[in-house]
């Protein structure tokens, strides 16, 4: 039997795959399908705001030859919907992550206070990297704002907390964000969110491919794999060992999952491929990962996790 287990903040995962927040997780029906899917070891809710939001209007997701572009604009059912689901959630085998993404610092702190006061006993992910709300820059690119919200959050929040980060593109930025994150008792970081504000053109019509924000949107899928690997590895090298890493970005095959683990990921999340294939993708990825491990004579993920070699 191949061992694909992981742990974060005392939670044990029998399998290391989960959905990327935002994909197949806005409704309880979608969440239940993820919970029941073979190959998932956990699930995460769509990032919540204090009140329900319809999100951006018009065509807001498109598949691309090498991935996807989206500008969903945070459509969600509101925090109390997900808290209600979470408070009735009793599947010990597959821990639940609750994702929140307030449009202001005050909204984020208010939601964390609500979660702190609730019965919720799972893990919470603070999304600091939504690229698609018009007029709202990604908090994760503002280092002082990131430090400030974490400082305030940890004055009262005692449940396991992780952050969803945007991709960084300069090693100096890896140093800066890691130094900030290391100052807090974070359970984990999730890296990367989509590569923000890409633009793709439909050659048949000479138009942009999605409607909101004049066509600008977050990129995911195969085209972001190298950026995801760099961020997972760069953060793993810099973060305290107590801060675990969820690797997200560019997973199409079991080998892609393997690569993120080799780069340092504890769990691996799947976005674009889940959108394209539905929850059955997890069974495929799990068996492809096991086949790859068999080829390498590994029986446990710990035998290669964070063991990426460099060339001398
Ligand atoms: O809803 C979105 O447009 C969205 C969010 Br909140 C996010 O964090 N990442 C993304 O690609 N889209």
What descriptors fit this protein?
single chain, 312 residues, four-stranded antiparallel β-sheet, binds ligand RRO, eight-stranded parallel β-sheet, TIM Barrel
Folded structure, characterized:
Its cofactor is FMN. The mean pLDDT is 98. With 312 residues, the chain is α/β, with parallel strands linked by helices. The chain has helices at 28-36, 79-87, 105-117, 143-153, 171-181, 225-238, 254-262, 272-277, 281-295; strands spanning 6-8, 11-13, 17-19, 43-44, 61-64, 67-70, 96-100, 123-127, 161-165, 188-191, 195-198, 201-202, 207-208, 217-220, 244-248, 267-270. The chain has one domain: Alpha-Beta Barrel (TIM Barrel). The protein contains nine helices and 16 strands. The strands form four sheets. An eight-stranded parallel beta sheet has the order 3-16-15-10-9-8-7-4. A four-stranded antiparallel beta sheet has the order 5-6-14-11. The chain is 31% helix and 19% strand. The radius of gyration is 18 Å and the shape is globular. Bound molecules: ligand RRO. Residues 22, 47, 70-74, 101, 127, 129-132, 193-194, 218 line the site of ligand RRO.
Write the topology of this structure:
Layout: E1 6-8, E2 11-13, E3 17-19, H1 28-36, E4 43-44, E5 61-64, E6 67-70, H2 79-87, E7 96-100, H3 105-117, E8 123-127, H4 143-153, E9 161-165, H5 171-181, E10 188-191, E11 195-198, E12 201-202, E13 207-208, E14 217-220, H6 225-238, E15 244-248, H7 254-262, E16 267-270, H8 272-277, H9 281-295
Parallel strand pairs: 3-16, 4-7, 7-8, 8-9, 9-10, 10-15, 15-16
Antiparallel strand pairs: 1-2, 5-6, 6-14, 11-14, 12-13
Helix pairs in contact: 4-5, 5-6, 7-9
């Amino acid at each position: 039997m191949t061992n694909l287990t992981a742990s974060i903040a005392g939670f044990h995962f029998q399998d290391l795959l989960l959905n990327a927040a935002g994909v197949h997780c806005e409704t309880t029906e979608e969440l239940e399908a993820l919970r029941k899917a073979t190959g998932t070891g956990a699930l995460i809710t769509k990032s919540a705001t204090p009140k329900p939001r319809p999100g951006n209007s018009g065509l807001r997701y498109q598949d691309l030859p090498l991935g996807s572009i989206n500008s969903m604009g945070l459509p969600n059912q509101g925090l109390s919907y997900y808290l209600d689901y979470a408070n009735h959630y009793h599947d010990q085998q597959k821990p639940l992550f609750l994702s929140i993404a307030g449009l202001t610092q005050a909204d984020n702190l208010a939601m964390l206070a609500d979660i702190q006061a609730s019965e919720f006993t799972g893990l919470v992910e603070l999304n600091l990297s939504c690229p698609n709300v018009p007029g709202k820059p990604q908090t994760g690119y503002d280092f002082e704002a990131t430090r400030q919200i974490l400082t305030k959050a940890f004055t009262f929040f005692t449940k396991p907390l992780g952050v969803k980060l945007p991709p960084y593109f300069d090693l100096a930025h890896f140093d800066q964000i890691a130094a900030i994150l290391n100052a807090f008792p974070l359970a984990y970081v999730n890296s990367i969110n989509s590569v923000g504000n890409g633009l793709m053109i439909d050659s048949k019509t000479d138009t942009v491919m999605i409607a909101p924000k004049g066509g600008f949107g977050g990129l995911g899928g195969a085209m972001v794999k190298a950026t995801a690997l760099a961020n997972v590895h760069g953060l793993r090298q810099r973060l305290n060992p107590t801060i675990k890493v969820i690797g997200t970005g560019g997973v199409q095959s079991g080998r892609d999952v393997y690569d993120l683990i080799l780069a340092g990921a504890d769990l691996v999340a799947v976005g674009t491929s889940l959108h394209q294939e539905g929850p059955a993708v997890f069974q495929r990825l799990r068996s492809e990962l096991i086949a790859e491990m068999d080829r390498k004579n590994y029986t446990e993920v710990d035998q290669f996790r964070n063991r990426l070699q460099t060339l001398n």
